[in-house]
């Protein structure tokens, strides 16, 4: 069985760099790109239409963004000649990454050093740091 590599992607330049690094350095691996949709990051808006309706709208927009990221990742995989699966999970970001790695026998995680900017990163802490501490497998953090 091929070396299974998980690359979380969130649309940030750091995640893109991590994906490129992984494909360049591990050309014989099988890759899974993962996007974690975290409802806690939903901005407080759209109260006129009700929270349930707003949550549905948020989810639809985030799934479309994830599909765009997956299309870009597939194009990159074609360039490198590697296999790639794309998955989306719902929940807290770091926990989603670690749980996916545990549940799918991932051999290595390659991720960007950070994907958030500003206040939310300070308040929520570093996803990469949490993944490094809790991961069941080696984690390579790309800067």
Automatic annotation (TrEMBL):
Source organism (scientific name): Halalkalicoccus paucihalophilus
Signal peptide: none
CDD domains in the record: USP-like
SUPFAM superfamilies named in the record: Adenine nucleotide alpha hydrolases-like
Boundaries of every UspA domain copy: 1-143
Protein name, as recorded: Universal stress protein
Classification via InterPro entries: Rossmann-like_a/b/a_fold (IPR014729), Universal_stress_UspA (IPR006015), USP_A (IPR051688), UspA (IPR006016)
């Amino acid at each position: 069985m091929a070396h299974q590599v998980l690359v979380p992607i969130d649309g940030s330049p750091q995640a893109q760099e991590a994906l490129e690094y992984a494909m360049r350095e591990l050309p014989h691996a099988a890759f899974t790109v993962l996007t974690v949709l975290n409802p806690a990051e939903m901005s407080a808006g759209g109260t006129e239409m009700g929270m349930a309706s707003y949550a549905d709208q948020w989810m639809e927009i985030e799934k479309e963004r994830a599909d765009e990221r997956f299309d870009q990742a597939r194009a990159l995989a074609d360039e490198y000649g590697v296999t790639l699966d794309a998955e989306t999970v719902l929940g807290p970001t770091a926990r989603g990454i670690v749980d996916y790695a545990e549940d799918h026998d991932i051999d290595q995680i390659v991720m960007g050093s950070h994907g958030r900017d500003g206040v939310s990163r300070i308040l929520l802490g570093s996803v990469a740091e949490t993944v490094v501490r809790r991961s069941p497998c080696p984690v390579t953090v790309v800067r």
